[in-house]
Design brief:
This protein is an alpha+beta fold. It folds into 2 domains: 181 residues, FAD/NAD(P)-binding domain; 175 residues, D-Amino Acid Oxidase, subunit A, domain 2 (D-Amino Acid Oxidase, Chain A, domain 2). It is built from 12 helices and 20 strands. The strands form 4 sheets. Strands 4, 5, 6, 13, 14, 15, 16, 17 and 18 form a 9-stranded mixed beta sheet that branches. The protein has a 6-stranded mixed beta sheet with strand order 8-2-1-12-20-19, sandwiched between helices. The protein is globular. The protein starts with a strand and ends with a helix. The structure holds flavin-adenine dinucleotide. The site of flavin-adenine dinucleotide has 40 residues, from helix 1, strand 13, strand 18, strand 20 and helix 12. Keywords: Flavoprotein, Oxidoreductase.
């Protein structure tokens, strides 16, 4: 086998897509019967524009690949863009700085421009920015569609319900020990999401991998609501999202956003809230997200954090909300956007460490595959 990939989340699949396009024989080994990790628990938001530096170049490369893959594999990749809603003058100032720097990839909107495009409550909105390059997919279907396409159309086997339990270097090859027998590989990519420390403890230790744990909700209008939410095309980001996306980090106005929130809404900063939402095909809304960092997290989900998200979501949409589903999600976190390491010859571990796998995985995978070729 030219390449064995550990993990059938979006990062593993992106490497498989790149490798089969080079004519390599590829096997993807996935512990679960289908991907249920971070790659199905997010917003389905391919947020290209809010990346910065090398991540922005990976995101632009990923964008092309998503559009092509959507057509070839037959799943919807929607060119909806994203909309950042500003509800304070300092948030609008950050967006002004951003639009000036991004020259056409971010368009400043008036309050009316915002409420015409997305069904948010007009109260408190000072304006916003539309980011036309960003894409949307149905996060519950996209990874499965890519895996099925790889399997049926590109001859790439995905071995489900099979755990990789060890890797042993040989001469010019690696022995991949799995729960269903051994495989010999010329190269291995470990795309195990946040679980880097299990198979690659030294790489995780050297990089200082932590786990970023998030609470997420699927919501719909509460029974008491007097109106439906309506159609939401773009991903909707808000002022708290400005603090968490690298693209805004250099803005001189960002400090004022943080100071104001620290003074007036400290609970949002304490919970690491980045208030954001997207709509699923059935009309319900994915609402998130909180962030908390650690190596081993308490197993107890916080009702208070869910309530906070529900209140913030209701205030944004102007509709009382109720949760239909609740879940937690985890990604690996280090102070850099990517972890790429070679823990042993012929083995590369890849993890997207700033919550940007949907946006950046395909661009990064192209580089990794080129380097290990
Ligand atoms: C709440 C949330 C919101 C997010 N929002 C966004 C967003 O808006 N935009 C964006 O770009 N990104 C977003 N992200 C980040 C994105 O979801 C991740 O970067 C991406 O899904 C990571 O993909 P992955 O393949 O590395 O991990 P995963 O999807 O977790 O896949 C790893 C796979 O490896 C398998 N595995 C692990 N160990 C083994 C083993 N030993 N043997 C076999 N299989 C194994 C697991 O079973 C799993 O299926 C978000 C993440 C979260 C959690």
């Amino acid at each position: 086998m030219d390449l064995v990939i550990v993990g059938a989340g979006i990062v593993g699949l992106a490497h498989a897509v790149e490798a089969v396009s080079r004519g390599w024989s590829v096997l993807v080994v996935e512990r679960d019967a289908r991907a249920v990790g971070a790659s199905v628990r997010h917003f389905g938001h391919i947020g290209v524009t809010t990346q910065d530096g090398i991540a922005l170049s990976y995101a632009l490369a990923s964008r092309e690949r998503w559009l092509r893959l959507g057509k070839e594999a037959g799943f919807a990749v929607r060119e909806t863009g994203s909309l950042v809603v500003a509800r304070a003058d300092d948030e609008l100032a950050v967006l002004d700085d951003f639009a000036a720097r991004r020259d056409g990839d971010a368009r400043i909107l008036t309050r009316r421009g915002v409420t015409d495009r997305v069904p948010v409550a007009a109260r408190g909105v000072t304006g916003g920015a539309f980011l036309p390059l960003d894409l949307r997919v149905d996060q519950r279907a996209a990874a499965a569609a890519v895996a099925a396409w790889l399997n049926t159309r590109r001859g790439c086997r995905v071995e489900w319900s099979t755990a990789v339990v060890g890797l042993e270097p040989g001469s010019g090859v690696t022995l991949v020990r799995t729960s269903r027998g051994d495989v010999v590989a010329r190269r291995v990519v470990g795309a195990v999401g946040h679980e880097v420390a299990r198979l690659f403890p030294e790489a995780a230790h050297d990089a200082g991998v932590q786990h970023c744990r998030q609470q997420m909700l699927r919501v719909e209008p509460a029974r008491s609501a007097r109106r439906a939410i309506g159609e939401i095309g773009p991903a909707v980001l808000t002022g708290t999202s400005l603090l968490r996306h690298e693209g805004f980090a250099w803005s001189p106005s960002l400090g004022r956003v943080r100071e104001r929130l620290a003074e007036t809404r400290p609970e949002l900063l304490d919970a690491g809230v980045s208030l954001m939402l997207t709509q699923l095909p059935d009309g319900t809304v994915t609402l998130g997200e909180t962030h908390s960092y650690g190596i081993t997290h308490d197993p107890f989900r916080s009702e208070a954090l869910d309530d906070l998200l529900l209140r913030e979501g209701a205030s944004l949409l102007g509709v009382p909300l109720r949760a239909v589903e609740r879940w937690e999600a985890t990604y690996a976190s280090v102070p850099r956007p990517f972890l790429v390491a070679e823990p042993m010859p012929g083995v590369t571990v890849v993890s997207l460490t700033s919550g940007s796998g949907m946006a950046c995985a395909f661009g990064l995978a192209a580089k990794v595959v080129e380097e290990v070729a």
